[in-house]
Amino acid sequence: MTDLVDRATQRHPLLEWAWSLVRLDFVGIPFGALFFCLSLTPSLLPRDWLFAGIIGGVNAAVGYGIGVLVGKLFHRLVLRGRPWWPPSRNALWWCKGLTIAGSIALPVAMIVPAAAWQRQVSALMGIDGPATPGYYRALVVAVLFGAVVVAVARVVRDAIRVLARFLIRRWHVNDEVALFIGTAVVVVLLLTLVNGVLFRGFLAGASRVFQPQNATTRAGVEQPMEPERSGSPASFAHWDTLGYQGRNFVATGPDAAELTRLNGTPGREPIRVYAGLQSAQTDTGRVALLLSELERTHAFDRKVLAIVPTTGTGWVNPLAARALELMYNGDTAMVALQYSYLPSWISFVGDAQKSAESGRMLIDAVHQRWERLPADHRPKLLLYGESLGSLAGQSAFGYLPDISAMGFDSVLWVGPPNASTLWRALVARRDPGSPEVAPRYDGGRTVRFSEAGDTAEIRRDTAAPWLGTRVLYLQHASDPIVWRSPDLLFSKPDWLSEPPGRDRSPAMRWYPFVTFSQVGVDVFKAADLPGGHGHNYGTYVLDGWAAVAPPPGWTDADTERVRAALEKTMAEDGPPS
């Protein structure tokens, strides 16, 4: 069949080139099949057939490329010049036929255990897993996706060859030198195209998509009338400048009447201060506006003042905000600042530095104003950050002692991205014998880590004695935001060598590149899991607050009472968004 196609395409150069884009190398085929099969092994989160196919296609293409390289090196270094090579035509065809047949049969057979693994991972998350017959669609997606990746790689290869031939003919450059120059030129052009034109175009396109939503208001959300809220008629921050998430933040949450009913004592109207991207022209102007809002609302007279660096869109977890207000019966003030209207993953890829600078600016400004108060008239200073908001908050501190030195009473960081500098330093310097998934640092004197998703476990991890400033990281063993790292490309992390965490499959293994791609794709599904799994921390943020900032006399029964109120709110309003 191949000979027939070759004879047909030899008469048409364009067809011959098109055929070269899809024709497969004999040695690359089994390597591609192997990498595809490895990609079907379980990772942190359950995958449907579409994501399994995408991951499988990428890994098959990478494996194919490795196989081609291995085959060429083996032929050049081992087989060339051997008297018994090449073998007879019949022997070669039998070898190729058996290899190709095995390379087809193995992926087909691998779908059966792959679907079973996904059902096991799904069961850990409390959801239904995929049926085996439907999972075979992953094969089709993988073939199509892998073919596109291989074809693109061959286009790049052909561009290098064309440039090398030009250099040889025009300037009579040595073959190896021409190939090196051609490769360098094409790589530089590709990097410039991807990092420059395509990346800027992607960010511009994302801006056009998400900026209009920032100007909208969620159904049912109305301008607050209470002067304790930004966006109210009394506020310096106008309602229409707060952005989509800012309007959600200031217009929702418990009021004094609800707090009174829940806690049985007169509640106060919680203070929520927020500045959106349109609230002022510059970062400095927005921070100054926030300080004016804090002064206007008398936020420094409250029992608790919480600084909340936001995620990419300016989102503040409504469960975290409501939980703290319910615990303190409204005697609270919260301040947050929007720095982008792009989703967190785009903000992280596009400009993580902007997140860090925003968090540092917000924390420094509020802290400096708080520090000017008499020591006996200061509210408790709290810091909360979730996901990219956690990374933004950590950026304000070079070292762990800085948190205590600045006077923070409590810090709660939830689902910290792996790129968080402070988190990485603490995990790397954890106490000997403590696992990476639940590390212990300095005996837990100031900072502690807890594998969220289990109230009893959080209480054990945060049990007394715990004096002075309390810093708590809540993280899931199944959260790809926490565990995805470039190091996964070529090195096995400690958390995959240790016994699995509460909701990580014991069948998960590390494979070069494969695991990195699996966890990378897991990121896109991380927030879609039930509370207590992936990047959804549900009501366990309440356990975090109860651990680091409990009001005087707070009990476990109080925590459960507040949890019931939070769950009722979720049932009525839906999950946080």
Give a written overview of the molecule:
- The protein has 577 residues and is α/β, with parallel strands linked by helices.
- Helices cover 54% and strands 7% of the residues.
- It has helices at residues 2-9, 13-22, 28-39, 49-79, 89-125, 132-135, 137-171, 175-214, 243-251, 256-263, 283-296, 318-327, 344-371, 388-394, 400-405, 421-428, 455-461, 480-483, 514-522, 540-548, 556-573; strands at residues 271-275, 304-309, 332-337, 380-386, 410-414, 447-451, 470-475.
- A seven-stranded parallel beta sheet has the order 1-3-2-4-5-7-6, with helices on both faces.
- β2, α12 (318-327) and β3 (332-337) form a beta-alpha-beta unit.
- α4 packs across α7.
- The longest helix has 40 residues, at 175-214.
- The radius of gyration is 29 Å and the shape is elongated.
List the helices and strands and how they pair.
Elements: H1 2-9, H2 13-22, H3 28-39, H4 49-79, H5 89-125, H6 132-135, H7 137-171, H8 175-214, H9 243-251, H10 256-263, E1 271-275, H11 283-296, E2 304-309, H12 318-327, E3 332-337, H13 344-371, E4 380-386, H14 388-394, H15 400-405, E5 410-414, H16 421-428, E6 447-451, H17 455-461, E7 470-475, H18 480-483, H19 514-522, H20 540-548, H21 556-573
Parallel strand pairs: 1-3, 2-3, 2-4, 4-5, 5-7, 6-7
Helix pairs in contact: 1-2, 3-4, 3-5, 4-7, 4-19, 7-8, 11-13, 12-20, 12-21, 13-14
Could you write a compact summary of the structure shown?
It contains 21 helices and seven strands. The chain has 577 residues and is α/β, with parallel strands linked by helices.
Major sheet: arrangement of strands: 1-3-2-4-5-7-6
Number of strands: 7
Largest sheet: 7 strands, parallel
Strand and helix order: HHHHHHHHHHEHEHEHEHHEHEHEHHHH
- Residue windows where pLDDT falls under 50 for at least 5 positions: none
Structural class: alpha/beta
Helical segment count: 21
Whole-Å distance between the termini? 56 Å
Shape: elongated
> What radius of gyration results from the CA coordinates?
29 Å
Residue share in helices? Answer: 40-55%
Strand proportion: 5-15%
